[in-house]
Write a structure and sequence with these properties.
Elements lengths: L2 H4 L2 H23 L3 H27 L5 H28 L4 H27 L6 E3 L3 H19 L7 H15 L4 E3 L9 H19 L2 H29 L5 H15 L2
Antiparallel strand pairs: 1-2
Helix pairs in contact: 2-3, 2-4, 3-4, 3-6, 4-5, 4-6, 4-7, 5-7, 6-7, 6-9, 8-9
Length: 266
């Protein structure tokens, strides 16, 4: 075996493992009917997130980055963080709406796919470290879906919810956030040795307290709400400053910050 080519196997295997987890999550969402089966479907999306977080790092560590890997990762993300959460939402809370529920679930999936496509275009046009995501990242939107579903299963011990209007609202809101111009920090440029580190410790402590007082999944819901709200508030503040001062577009600001980061990196 050519060792030079063999180094590409591990990161691509992790990417395919993410897709496999997403595929099985879809299967359980379609065929499941119990809290245990829906819980496994949700956990499979979490496993997909773990594989997705590792494949890029492994590729960089082994210097096995390739255009094939980039495209494969994007397709796997569309499956695991777009289609799989959409089917989980449908099975858990949208199925009473029939075809309308399926359409709402598709809106979520389509938004995730559009979000991933936009990210690929922007990443191709700009090298360097991205300080901000433009729109809620698809994996984090999927994390929001998983945490809400897990919290419901843990608290109520029921496989489905009759709050289909709320689930429809959640699906549409998350879809809208993914394709929005709202900026979310990547935290890749944050120095956690200072106040950011202290804030992280406080946030971790509050999360542990919530997990012990209620359920761990409830703590995850709280964390996702905080992250989403921080992005919303930050964007509103930025836009407010722009209205008072110079003209501003989210894309221009996003690009300026990428250029600034590239200059800092030399």
């Amino acid at each position: 075996m050519d060792l030079h080519k063999a180094k590409y196997l591990l990161p691509n295997a992790l990417t395919l493992s993410s897709a496999f987890a997403g595929f099985n999550s879809i299967y359980l969402s379609l065929t499941g009917s119990t809290t245990h089966e829906y819980s496994i479907a949700a956990w499979l999306i979490v496993i997909a997130m773990a594989c997705d977080a590792l494949d890029g790092r492994v590729a960089r560590m082994t210097r096995a980055e390739s255009e094939l890997g980039v495209q494969l990762d994007s397709l796997a993300d569309a499956l695991s963080f777009g289609i799989a959460p959409a089917f989980l939402l449908y099975a858990w809370g949208l199925s009473p709406l029939g075809m309308l529920g399926m359409i709402i679930a598709f809106v979520y999936a389509a938004s995730a796919i559009l979000r991933l496509a936009r990210y690929n275009v922007m990443a191709h046009e700009h090298d360097g470290v991205m300080r901000y995501f433009l729109g809620l990242p698809a994996p984090l939107a999927a994390c929001a879906v998983v945490s809400v579903v897990m919290a419901h299963l843990a608290v109520t011990e029921r496989a489905t919810t009759h709050a289909y209007v709320s689930v429809a609202g959640l699906s549409v809101v998350l879809g809208g956030l993914m394709i929005s111009n709202i900026k979310y920090r990547t935290f890749k440029d944050v120095n956690f040795r200072g106040r950011a580190g202290l804030g992280l410790v406080v946030l971790a402590g509050v999360s542990v307290a919530l997990g012990r007082a209620f359920k761990p999944s409830v703590a995850f819901v709280a964390l996702m709400v905080v992250y989403i709200l921080v992005g919303l508030v930050g964007t509103v503040v930025h836009w407010s400053r722009a209205i008072i001062g110079d003209d501003f577009t989210p894309y221009d600001d996003f690009e300026d910050e990428l250029v600034a980061q590239e200059e800092e990196n030399g």
